[in-house]
Design a protein that fits this description.
The complex is a heterodimer of chains A (150) and B (138). Chain A has helices at residues 23-51, 61-68, 71-99, 103-130. Chain A is mostly helical and 150 residues long. Chain A has a domain at 29-131: Up-down Bundle (3 helical TM bundles of succinate and fumarate reductases), CATH 1.20.1300. Chain A is elongated. Chain B is mainly alpha-helical and 138 residues long. Helices cover 72% and strands 0% of the residues of chain B. Chain B is elongated. Classes of the chains: A mainly alpha (150), B mainly alpha (138). The interface between A and B is large, with 48 and 43 residues. Chain B: Belongs to the cytochrome b560 family. Chain B: Its cofactor is heme.
Chain lengths: 150, 138
């Protein structure tokens, strides 16, 4: 089998696309725009959860309940959820395009990426907006202090 | 791929995977920043999947959430969180470097790689001692 290798820098043989949305361009723009926002959101998330106070050893249900009843942190976390999962899913898609050569493998992997991103976005969004900081029957010492005032 | 054997020697024969030619990119700062960006990106993606599932346990019960977050507070996971933050901080600063290469000036890509390493070291110096103190003193 002989392989013909084109001269370097020869122009694309493919005709330029004429119509439709250039999704690859918007994906490229999305990675940069969401990346800048995610630097702020994730550095803030790490600063508050891992650096302030006693860091990781202070995390528990009451800590999360305090954050997820505050509209500021609800918006922060939901933004982080959507931006990071789509950014990560699109990045994984790039790797599949680069390294998976069989059409079936590519199809399965991209479908799996899409499914996990979609499921986790829905799950995470539902958790933030249906969260109950004071579930009935839970031991009071595990709940945030404001639950005892109810 | 079969080796090309016939004909006069061409650059395709002289250039092998062991001896690249005609590239200033391979093996230099540009390549290693790209490799690290991919590796850290994949690692962060898989952590993100797990992290959303464990946080979703707040919707199950306080006991379930505290049981899992208790695992994050063990020494081994504390070291894992150090590696995770190291990956995130590199990916963040190198991502900003990529944006500057795209929209500002590509000829500073090499010096910006060393700026990324420098900022990574400074950030990790601010994080690691404090984090490990929190992990190992509780």
């Amino acid at each position: 089998m002989s392989t013909t290798i084109e001269a370097p820098r020869s122009p694309y043989a493919r005709a330029p696309r004429k119509r439709g949305v250039n999704w690859e361009k918007w994906g490229w723009i999305y990675m940069r725009v969401s990346g800048v926002v995610l630097v702020v959101l994730i550095f803030g998330h790490l600063f508050v959860n891992l650096w302030l106070g006693e860091g990781v050893s202070a995390l528990n249900f009451a800590f999360v309940a305090g954050k997820l009843t505050n509209p500021f942190w609800m918006v922060w976390d939901v933004l982080m959820l959507w931006l990071a999962l789509i950014h990560g899913g699109n990045g994984m898609r790039t790797l599949v395009n680069d390294y998976a050569t069989q059409p079936l493998t590519r199809g399965i992997l991209k479908w799996a990426i899409f499914a996990s991103v979609a499921v986790l976005i829905i799950l995470g969004t539902l958790v933030v907006f249906t969260f109950d900081p004071c579930p009935a029957g839970a031991p009071a010492d595990l709940l945030p202090s404001f639950c005892s005032a109810l | 791929m079969p080796q090309q054997t016939a004909g006069t020697p061409t650059y395709q024969q002289k250039t092998t995977s062991r001896r690249p030619a005609g590239t200033l990119y391979r093996g230099r700062e540009g390549m290693w920043s790209w490799v690290l960006h991919r590796i850290t990106g994949v690692a962060i993606f898989f952590f993100l999947l797990v992290h959303i599932l464990d946080t979703a346990l707040v919707r199950v019960s306080p006991e379930a959430y505290n049981a899992v977050i208790g695992q994050y507070q063990t020494p081994i996971m504390g070291l894992g969180e150090t590696a995770l933050v190291a990956a995130i901080v590199f990916h963040a600063f190198n991502g900003l470097r990529i944006i500057l290469i795209d929209f500002w000036n590509a000829k500073y890509q090499k010096v910006m790689f060393y700026v990324v390493i420098g900022l990574w070291v400074v950030t990790m110096l601010a994080f690691v001692p404090r984090h490990l103190t929190n992990v190992f003193n509780h």
